[in-house]
């Protein structure tokens, strides 16, 4: 008779498995990216309208600001989640 021993698995308070560290880092990046995109939409719209952009130029400027702030905030959130692993 063989006795198979499995590696211990981290179990949460209600018996469910905890996500792997790389999954938590990816989830942190996605959450940070979403929050950064929302902040970029607000700040980008305000700053582009303030300098007088309209139409296609406005959309390009707001989109660029959204992507930059989403990427920045997502990076820092993923680093924070990686530290917590």
UniProtKB/TrEMBL annotation:
GO BP field: protein import into mitochondrial matrix; protein insertion into mitochondrial inner membrane
Family of this protein: Belongs to the MGR2 family.
Domain of life: Eukaryota
Keywords noted in UniProt: Membrane, Transmembrane, Transmembrane helix
Name of the protein in its database record: Reactive oxygen species modulator 1
Family matches, as Pfam families: Romo1
Source organism: Oncorhynchus tshawytscha
InterPro entries membership: Romo1/Mgr2 (IPR018450)
Function, as annotated: Induces production of reactive oxygen species (ROS) which are necessary for cell proliferation. May play a role in inducing oxidative DNA damage and replicative senescence. May play a role in the coordination of mitochondrial morphology and cell proliferation. Has antibacterial activity against a variety of bacteria including S.aureus, P.aeruginosa and M.tuberculosis. Acts by inducing bacterial membrane breakage.
Residue ranges crossing the lipid bilayer per the database entry: 27-49
Subcellular localization, as worded in the UniProt entry: Membrane
Main location: membrane
GO (cellular component) term, any one: TIM23 mitochondrial import inner membrane translocase complex
């Amino acid at each position: 008779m063989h006795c198979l021993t499995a590696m211990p698995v981290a179990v949460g308070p209600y018996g469910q498995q905890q996500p792997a560290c790389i999954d938590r880092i990816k989830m942190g990046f996605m959450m940070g990216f979403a929050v950064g995109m929302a902040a970029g939409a607000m700040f980008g719209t305000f700053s582009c309208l303030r300098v007088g952009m309209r139409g296609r130029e406005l959309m390009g400027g707001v989109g660029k600001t959204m992507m930059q702030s989403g990427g920045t905030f997502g990076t820092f959130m993923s680093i924070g989640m990686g530290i917590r692993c």
